[in-house]
Amino acid sequence: MDSPVKIPYESFIKIDRKSETSIYLQIANQLVNAIQRGFLPFGTKLPGTRAFSEILDVHRNTAVAVYDELSAQGWVESFPNKGTFVIGKDQEKPVRVKDFEENNLQNYPKITGFTFKTSNILDNPFEHSDCEYVFNDGVPDIRLTQIGQHSRYYSSILKRKSTQKGLGHYNHDGSEFFKEHLSRYLNLSRGLPISKNNLLITRSTEMSIYIVSEILLSAGDTVLVGDLSYFSVNMIFQKAGVNIVTLPIDEDGIIVESVREACKKQKIRMLYLTPHHHYPTTVALSAQRRFELLELANEYGFVILEDDYDYEFHYDKSPILPLASADTSGMVIYIGSFGKSLAPGFRTGFIVAPENLMVEMRKHLGIIDRQGDILMERTLGEMIEEGEINRYLKKSLKVYQERRDHFSALLRDNLGDVITFEKPSGGLAIWMEWNIPINLMQLSRKCAQDNLFIPKTLLYQNKNLTAMRLGFGDLGFDEMEKSIEILSQNILHFR
C-alpha cells in the first residue's frame, strides 16, 4: 500500500527546539493529529526512518522513537520488508496536496460544528481600559495587603507533613478547621449564633447566590430587589427565569411598606438585600426596618437573602447587626465574602443557613466545586485563630477612613455646586447625584480622552435620576486629586 500523495510532512510538523516537550513527542503528537483529521488516511505508508529524519532534519534515533510511540498508541503498524502503515478505516474522499496547503493542522477550530444555546443575560458587563486613572465601584487596595506575611502562613502550612497527609483525604464539604474558626469569627463580629454545621464555603458571593438560586428559585417565582440593585446578582436571578420586582430605596434603606404591598398583590419567594451598605447607594437599612422585614417574612413566608456586602468596612460607628442574627424562624440566608481586605487570592465566600438547607447546598457544591481549596482555607483559619485578620483589618480601616474623608473633601471642593452626596459611614465608595443636566456616557468618553476611565457600570441615568457610584478604596491621595481634577474639568462642557 503506497501513500496516495506525496505528503509534505515538513509543512504541518513544526518543531519547537526550546520546548520542554521532547522532540520525538512533538512530532508523534502532530502525526496523530494528522491521522485523526484524515490527512494521513488508512493505508498511508510513512517514509522510512532514515528518509523521515532527513525530511524533518532530526536524528534517525528520533524518527525511530516517533514510530515506536505511534505503534505503542495503536496508530500505525510495521511490516518487515514493507514499511510502516497507518491503521484505521478506509477513507472515501482522497486527500490532495492542496488540502495540506489550505488547512493548517496547527489551528484549533474557530467555531463549533454543532448548535448551542447562547445567553444575552450573562454578557460580561465589565470594561477594561489602558487609562492611567480608573474609577471602580469600591474595591480594596491590593497595595495595602501584606502579601509577604500572608504567604508565610501559606508556605508554612504547605510544608507540614500533616497537611501533605490531609491532601489525600479532603472533605469536599470544606475544611472543618476553617469552618470552626469562621463560625466563631462570625459569631463575635456579626452576632450569628452558628456552628460549623451552618456554614458552606464557596469561592465567591456570586457562587453562593448561584447555589441558593438553584435550590430555592424556580422559573416564574417573584424576587424583590431594591431600585437600584447589584447588577451581577440580578443577572443570576434573570438566568433563573424569575420575575424581578424593584422596590424604592430611601435614606434608611428599602421601604418596608412597598414590600408589604408587593406581598399583598402576589406570592413573593425571595427578598434580596444588601442592608449594611446598599448597593449602589451605600445607605444602611435602619434597625427598625430590619425587625419589620423579619416580621413580614414570617407573615408571608418569603426568604430573605441577606448579602453582607462591605460589612467589614465601618468607620464612624459599629455596624447594625445582620437580620440573620435576630432570625428565630429560619427565614434568612446570610451570604458574604471573607477576607475582602486581603489580596484577591486569599478571599473566599460563605453561606450561613439552617442545617437542613445546608444538606442540599452541599450536594450542589459537590458538583461545581468538589475539591475546594484546603490550603487556602487552612491559611485563613490560622489567620483568624492568631488574630491576624483583626490586626490587619484594624490597620486598613484607618487608611480607608482617611481616604474616604479626603475623597469627600475633594468632591465637595471641586463639584459641590453640581452634585449631592452624603459621606458614607462605611464601605469603599460614594454615591453622588448630579444637579445639572448631563449625559454620563458623554462625560465618561471625554474623561477617557484625558486618561480617566469611568466604566459604564458606575453610571446610573434615567428620566428621574443621574448618579454615579465612585470607589475610593484603591486610590491614593495623589490619584484621587488627579482623577477629580480630570472629572471637574470635563464637567465644564455641560455647565
Automatic annotation (TrEMBL):
MF term (GO), any: DNA-binding transcription factor activity
TM region(s), chain numbering: none
The HTH gntR-type domain extends over: 21-89
> What is the name of this protein?
GntR family transcriptional regulator / MocR family aminotransferase
Q: Which UniProt keywords apply?
A: Aminotransferase, DNA-binding, Pyridoxal phosphate, Transcription, Transcription regulation, Transferase
Which CDD domains does the record associate with it? AAT_like (cd00609), WHTH_GntR (cd07377)
Q: Which top-level group of life is the source organism from?
A: Bacteria
One Pfam family name is GntR
Of which family is this protein a member? In the C-terminal section; belongs to the class-I pyridoxal-phosphate-dependent aminotransferase family.
